[in-house]
Amino acid sequence: MTDPTPLLSDVFGHSAFRPGQEDIVRAVAAGQEVLAIMPTGGGKSLCFQLPALMTPGVTVVISPLIALMRDQVRGLREAGVVAGALTSGNTPEETDFVWEAAEAGTLKLLYLAPERLAAGAALGMLRRIGVTRIAVDEAHCVSQWGHDFRPDYLRIGELRRALGVPVAAFTATADAETRAEIVEKLFEGQPPVSFLHGFDRPNLHLAFQPKNSPRSQILKFAAARKGASGIVYCGTRAKTESLARALREEGHPAVHYHGGMEAEDRRVVEARFSREDGLIVVATVAFGMGVDKPDIRWVAHADLPKSIEAYYQEIGRAGRDGAPAETLTLYGADDIRLRRAQIDEGLAPADRKEADHGRLNALLGLAEATGCRRKQLLAYFGDALETCAGCDHCDSPPEVMDGTEAVRKALSAVLRTGEYFGIGHLTDVLTGNATDKVRARGHDDLPTFGVGRDMTRPVWQSVFRQMLGLDLVRPDPERHGGLRMTEAARPILRGEASVTLRKDALKAAETTRRPAV
Ligand code: ADP
Ligand code: ZN
Question: Whose CA is nearest to atom 17 of ligand 1?
Fold first, then answer.
């Protein structure tokens, strides 16, 4: 195998690998099957482009976006690499170039649009030209549940088998379910070597606050950053307008943005935001996809995002230039109810809804964390963290209390019900609420039934969320998000370890009148 380091500088012009890149490059070049999870902008393309140059034969790259394929092909050719693309938009000259290079044996990377796989015609040609491996960009497009589902991606597994070559798959989507689906569909169940790297964004400062007086909390945050470009995300369209007005009254240049606006008006906001310094956009999540401004200095959530993934993506729009940027996320009982209702009233099938509740729980666990936010956020994605570069809890730790007994009761409810149920049902069991489901399962006869009557339902829910945050329980996607106990919880159950819980979160939960289910 060729040494990758000289190629890194000679062809790609980079002086060093980013964390994780070299291991992935070596594994791919060695012919291993690989699943690499890296955040957007982390440098995934290098991880299949470089191995293509280290080994003989053609690397087939399957990618969902024609524009992106063209950019990469252009970049590679400028660097002197023989690369080509076969897409529906090809000119005859481009197609001829690709065939000739393939027949001549000089072609190193062949980008294929996924719909090319449907024709079946591709197979004969690929057999002839000597394919070394298949690289799959945006591999989460095989997931039928994801928003980017591409039916033609389901044919990649067949192609892998027909050609008998390894697959190297890349995605920024890190949740366990999508990963499992990628392994099943792309690798036909044979687990690849997995890599997960680079989710930490050290220049982003993370902070959460319980929502007390949301408008003044946001105004205060903005006032401390006057003159800097920022985004405020809101849960409703109406709120974007009223909050933008309030910011203007405080002397900030601020505009609103939501999906209900005319396309032309939206474009004007996008153009102003990227051009102007110091503009604040108050928006729904409709704002973001097309936003490519490197110097956004802060992102605030006036309402809780819908999941931990959404949170990560939304705060991730700040500080793309690597300079320090700040984030603040507000959360309150109303948000939790709203997000729950949105999931329940959505059109997704039941198991999907359970999983969405699980992702929301993970975010709530982060909001009610006792320790470092960054560590907990990265742990969710499976990425380890050595030192936190900045979060509100590392700045000043929150008030805590001993929660060992409550956690033990909660764990016993999890175990005695067979590690199969979500927070709602477990709370029913603990508080002695004999619902139809509780009675049908005979859970009203368990010794755990009603042992938690001394605490209200919202307090128990906060306990469970904090347990999720501490990774004492985990939603099991194979059991519709039912909670399972983790190894970390065992010493607590045996009385060998204690747990601390957030005092303010429990107190805030206690004052919630209507239970948030
Ligand atoms: P994505 O992971 O989103 O596909 P890209 O592969 O497009 O990201 O890479 C994002 C940017 O990072 C590109 O501009 C690329 O040139 C740059 N990059 C990738 N690897 C390195 C490296 N080792 N050193 C410096 N820049 C790099
Ligand atoms: Zn921290």
Answer: 43
Q: Tell me if residue 132 falls in helix, strand or coil.
A: strand
45 with 36: CB under 8 angstroms?
Answer: no
Asked whether the predicted pLDDT for residue 512 surpasses 70, the reply is no
What whole-number distance in Å separates Cα of residue 232 and Cα of residue 451?
43
- The owner of tokens 């697959």 is 167
Burial class (CB in 10 A: 0-12, 13-18, 19+), 465: buried
Q: Residue 424 corresponds to which amino acid?
A: G
Give the nearest ligand 1 atom to 44 CA: 2
pTM of the model: 0.74
- Band the pLDDT of 370: cuts 50, 70, 90: confident
For residue 326, the cross-strand partners are: 205, 298
Residues lining ion ligand 2 (Cβ < 5 A) are 372, 374, 388, 391, 394
Write the CB contacts of 318 (distance below 8 Å, at least 6 apart in sequence): 204, 230, 231, 296, 297, 298, 299, 325, 326, 327
Residue entry with tokens 């002397």: 251
Quick check: 509 pLDDT over 70?
A: no
Q: Scanning the structure block, which residue is given the tokens 């045996």? A: 494
Q: What is the per-residue pLDDT across 384-399, written as a single tens digit (0 to 9) for each?
A: 887 898 999 999 999 8
Burial class (CB in 10 A: 0-12, 13-18, 19+), 180: middle
Distance CA 289, CA 178 (A): 21
Closest ligand to 374 CA? 2
Ligand 1 mutation pick, 10, 14, 61, max ligand atoms within 8 A of CB: 14
> pLDDT at residue 19 above 60?
yes
Provide the token pair at 405: 């007994």
Which tokens go with 48? 């299949």
pLDDT of residue 517: 39
Which positions ≥6 away from 331 have C-beta within 8 Å?
A: 208, 209, 210, 211, 304, 364, 367
- C-beta separation of 467 from 488 below 8 A: no
